[in-house]
Amino acid sequence: MSVKGPEHVAIILDGNGRWATAQGLARTDGHEQGAKQIKTIALAASKMGIKYLTIYCFSTENWNRSVGEVNYLMNMPQRLLQNKQINDFNNEQIRINHIGRTTKMPPKTLEILQDSLAKTKDNKGMVLTFAFDYGAVEEMVSAINNIIAEKIPVVDETILANHLYTKDLPLVDLLIRPGGEKRLSNFLLFQSRYAELYFSDKYWPEFDEKCLLAAIMDYNNRNRRFGGITDNE
Asked: Catalytic positions (predicted)?
């Protein structure tokens, strides 16, 4: 079911651990259910006609969690991007993309990510971007250092944008955060400067297709001015 809505939707995955605790489960069980929800929402978003979906899976600050939880999260791509899941994405013509650092990832995690990119690179449908070991500040610092190394004399918005991980993605139209918190948490700060923000009290593992549709309907009812005013104002 295609619906009128945003071109680029970004989602901060939040509430996995709290969902698990509320169910009397281990935090890792919440991450497991959250990973399954990524596929559910990605397929739903594709059917709704969304062209770009960016998922905030692991931030540069998440390394500060317990070793056990970090190791579990680092192994998540191996469960999320198995052959069956890749086949499902291919059937929907979803192309997988990654933004973030690759230098700290375990070799197997990086291999799985790169393999999924290769297996879906020719797909023409929605671009599903995993922000994994991503942080907006690190992204901008890295971009600035690369610009300095290239000895570019004058830097403007276009040059900076072309040095970000997201250089091939459009600006974010709708940024969704489940889990009840109301902050951006170092996610796509440059790219979300005119994004509409939508906060949900639902934890990510229970954020389903109906929740996504509600966010899009809310977006469609907003008046996006981009710093200007409408004729009626």
From this structure: 14, 62 (proton acceptor)
